[in-house]
Specification:
single chain; 2 domains; 287 residues; alpha/beta; globular; Rossmann fold; 10 helices; 8-stranded mixed sheet
Amino acid sequence: MTENTVTIATQVVGEGEDAITYDVRGDLSSGVPLFVFGAPMDASGFQQLAEHFADRPVVTYDPRGAGRNPVGTSDISTAQHADDIHRVVAALGVGPVDAFGSSGGAVNLLAAAATHPEDFRTIVAHEPPNATFLPDGEEVLEVIADLKKTYAEKGDGAAMAKFVALVMHDGPVPDGYLDQPAPDPAMFGMPSEDDGSRTNPLFRNMPAIIEYRVDTEALRGFGDRLVIAAGVQSGDTMAARGARAVATEVGIEPTEFPSHHGGFQDSPGYPGDPDAFAARLREVLDR
C-alpha cells in the first residue's frame, strides 16, 4: 500500500486557542495507531515517516502554536503540550497508542507519558533536547535565556542564527560560550531585518522544553516499553546528549537510531535516511 491509497482524515480537537489539528492515515480499527510528532515541527515533517507504516493507522498532529493551529506570542508550557497530546489520543477513542516523539516532541511525549501512562503502549523519545540532567545544564539554560532575549529584541533572523549555532555545537557548552561574537544570520540564509513578528513556536517553546524536569520515576513504570533514542551521526550535540542523560537517569540504555536529529526525513541540504530510520522504529516497536 502506498501513501496515495491511504485515506487521510483531518480532525480538530478543542476550540479557540486550544484547537489542535491532527490527521489520521488509514483505518483506526485496523490496528494499534502509531502517533508520530515533533515540536515545533508540524505534521508535514512526518509524511515520509508515515509512508513507511501504511500497514497500520498513523496519526500526526500540529503541536500548539504551529502549522494549522492558532498562533500566538505567549510562551507555551510542556504541560500544555502534554495535555494536547492526551486530548488527541482520547479523541481517537481506540485505547493506548504507540508513540514516537522527536526533538521537542520527545520531551512533550515524556511529559504526556508521565501524566497519562494509560494513553500509551510503547513510547519512543528521539533526541529530547532536555538540559535537566546535563552537567552543563546551567550553561545551556543561559544560552537559551540569551536566545529568548535576542528574539524579543531583534526578531527571528538573529535568534535563529544563534539557535542553529547552538544545535550544531558538538560537546558540552563551555564557560564563556556567550562571549563569542553572535553569528551572522546571512551565514544560514536568514534575514537580518526584524519583521516584527513574535509568533515563532520554536521560541515560544523555550525555555519550557529545555528545562522540563523529566519524571523519571513515572517513566520507569513503562519498563522495556520506553525507548530513548539518539542518532548515530548526532555525536555530542545537545539533543543527543540530552537523550543519553535522560536514559541514564531512568536507568535504561539509550537506543541508537540511524542518521541524525532529523534522520526520519530527507530534506534539501540536510539528507537523512528515512528508510533505515523507519526500519529501526518498526524494530523497536515490534520487539
